[in-house]
Amino acid sequence: MRRNKKTLMVAAGVAVLVFAGAAAFTASVSFSNTNTVVGYGAQTITGATVTSVTYTLSTDHTTVNNVAFVTAEDTSGAQQTAEVSFMDNSGGSPVETAWASCTVTTPYVSGTGTVWGCDVTSLTQATAHLVGIQITVQ
């Protein structure tokens, strides 16, 4: 009986060390860049069903350089145009920026949609003040 108690005590001690080590490991998780913007607050889209929107940021992640979006419909016809604008809150309340033109980067494919690309470097949109995006397809 004495041997079983000793084995039980050793097993309990090992379990405590394992749990203590796991707790110490999870407590050391940290992020190297806490200033990364990972989303936006709102979107307004007219003229098409947009299934995804992606941003390409500058190398230092301070401005948006490009916006790409996918429309579910075939919007790649010669008569179609698209533009994007941002909602910027640098002045304290959301204000619409100028509009930037977009071009079709991948024509319509059934089940995939039409991919549009928009060079927005002329808008110099700071990621810190980006609260929304507006897309118009005509």
Count of individual beta strands: 8
Largest sheet: 8 strands, mixed
**CATH architectural category of the largest domain:** Sandwich
Gross geometry:
elongated
CATH C-level class of the largest domain is Mainly Beta
Q: Write down the CATH topology of the largest domain.
A: Immunoglobulin-like
- What is the chain-wise order of helices and strands? HEEEEEEEE
Q: Would you identify the regions where 5 or more consecutive residues have pLDDT less than 50? A: 10-40
* Percent helix: 10-25%
Judged by helices, strands and strand pairing, the structural class is alpha+beta
Treating each run of at least 4 consecutive H or I residues as one helix, how many helices? 1
Radius of gyration: 26 Å
How many domains, in number, for the residues? 2
**What is the arithmetic mean of pLDDT?**
76
Approximately how much beta-strand content do the residues carry? 35-45%
End-to-end distance, in Å? Answer: 84 Å
Question: What does this 3D model show about the protein?
Answer:
Helices cover 18% and strands 40% of the residues. The longest helix is centred in the first third of the chain and has 25 residues, at 2-26. Strands 1, 2, 3, 4, 5, 6, 7 and 8 form an 8-stranded mixed beta sheet that branches. The chain is built from 1 helix and 8 strands. β6 (100-109) and β7 (113-119) form a beta hairpin. Mean pLDDT is 76; it is low at 10-40. It is of the alpha+beta class and 138 residues long. It folds into 2 domains: 1-31; 42-137, Sandwich (Immunoglobulin-like), CATH 2.60.40.
